[in-house]
Amino acid sequence: MNVDTPDFSSTTVAAARSYLVSGQPLPSGPVPTHRFIHTAIRRWGNPPATTTTAAVTHLFQWLAEVQLPYQPERRHDRNHNYTHYRGICDLDTKSYLFIPRTTGRLQQITLTPEMAAGRHFPHAFPAN
Description:
Distance between the termini: 43 Å
Structural class: alpha+beta
Largest sheet: 3 strands, antiparallel
Number of helices: 4
Radius of gyration: 18 Å
Strand content: 5-15%
Helix content: 25-40%
Order of helices and strands: HHHEEEH
Shape: globular
């Protein structure tokens, strides 16, 4: 993006916006760094969402752009990397929203005071 400093600033945001407007392809492929940069440019190159619903929609769209496809024919390969799920945390509502690869359906778990009380070890909560 031709930013002279490694520090994040308004120049970084302007560069991300210019990059998106230019129509240049975003980094892609299985390299984690490329997928991170792709998503960061999307995030900083777009204006902030005005509602929580819009933010969730945008975030899941951007994560879908960088997901690695599951290839059934490679399921026994030791090096078959693919996206198992996409997930985001809403710190305001203490919710975790996720889309598993197996269902493709948006699911949500919200941390209640009862769930949080006295939990000092990992616990699996039902997704329903």
